[in-house]
Amino acid sequence: MTATCWRPELIFRGSVRRASIALCALAFAACPNRAPAADQVEEFAAFQYYRLALSALERGDLEKAESRLAKVTSFASDWAQGGSMLGFVRECLGRPGPAAEAYQKALAADPRNAFAWHSLRKLGAPLPGDTAPTGDAKTWETYRAGLVLLTQQQVDEGIRTVFEAARAAPDWLEIRNTLAYLYEMHRTQGDAVREVQAVLDLAPQDLYARQALAQLRPDEAARQRSTAPTDGLKYPQWAGDETNAQFERQLFALVNEERRKRGLNELLPDETLTKIAREHAAEMREKGFFAHESPTPGRREPLDRYMLYETRKPQTIAENVARRWGSRPSLNESNIRGTHADLMQSSHHRANILREGLTHLGIGVASNGQGDFWVTEVFAKPR
User: Fold this and answer.
1) Which CATH number does the domain housing residue 160 bear?
2) Which of 73, 129, 165, 347 stands the most exposed, by the fewest C-beta atoms within 10 Å?
3) Same-domain pairing of 266 and 363
4) Half-sphere exposure of 155 (CA within 13 A, CB side)
5) What is the tens place of the pLDDT at every residue in 164-175?
6) What's the domain range around 259?
7) Predicted local confidence at residue 210, as pLDDT
8) Given a cut of 60, is residue 41 above it in pLDDT?
C-alpha cells in the first residue's frame, strides 16, 4: 500500500515504508557508543543508496539513479547487483561504453551474474570465456522489460513483469530483491519480507536481503496479510459503485472508531466532501497518477476541488490518499482494514485522522478490473 497525506501547511509525499527507512537510518547513526564495523557501515550505505537509486529510476530520473548507483559501487565494489544495475541505467542513458564497463566490474565481482552476462552479450562486449550465467536469456529479457517499464513510470505493469520473471526463475536473487523493494514501496511489508526471506534461504549473506530484513521488522510485518500475486491468480471484476460505497462506509467507521477511542468527536458524513473524494480517487485511476495534485486545471489541490462546490473556504481541510495494487482479491474487507492500518502507522496520515477541530469527512474508493483500488479521505471543518 502506498499513501500520501495533505494538510494546508504541509504536503507529505512517499509511503509508510519510506518513512520507516528514514527512521531506521537515524537510529543507526544515533548510537555512537555502539559503532558498527566499517564494513557494516559501508554495506548499510550501499543498501540505502541502492534504494534511493531505484526510487529515482521509478521517477524516470536516470541521471540521479546513475549518480546514486555510482555511490553504491564505491561503498560495495564487490556487490555485483549494484554494478549490474548501474550498467542498465547507463544503457538507458545511451552510454554503452560506460555500461559495458559497469557490467564487466559486476562480473569480476560475481562471474555468474546473469544480468551482467546477458547484457554484455547484447552490447557485443567481450564475455568471460570460462563461466556461464545462472539465469536464462528469456528470463533476463522479461526482467529487463520490467525495469524499462519502471523507468517509464509504468509501475503497475513493471511490478507485474518483474513478478513474472521471479516466478520463472525463483532462484535469481537479483530479481527477487528488486521485487522485494517494489512490494515494500507499493504493497505491504509482509510481501517484501517474504521475498527477502526467500533470498536469504538461498544466500544467507546476500547484502540487500540482510539489510532489508533488518529494516522491515519482520515481527510486525508477519502480522500483515500478504497480498502478493501467486500462480493461478484470478482478478475480480470491477466492483462497481455500490460495492465501493460499502467499503467507503467501512473506512468511515474505522476513522470514527479511532477518534472515539481517544475521546475525540466523531466526524459527520458530508455530501460535498464525499463527491470530492470519489472524483479524486476516480481521476487517479483514470489518468494513471497517484498524488494530491491533480493534473486537471482548477482541481490541482484539495482546496481547489472543495471550492468547485462551495462558496466559502473551510476553516480546515486535509486529505489522505492511498492505493493498493492488485491482490487476491484486492478490494475486500481485509485489505480495506489493512489500508486503514497502514495509514495509522504513518504519523502524517494518523495526524489527519486524529486531527482536533475537524467536523466532517468524505471518503471515495475507486477500483478497476485488475483488483487495484484507490482511496481518498477528505477531512474538513466548514465555515
Assistant:
1) 1.25.40.10
2) 129
3) yes
4) 22
5) 999 999 999 999
6) 242-381
7) 86
8) yes
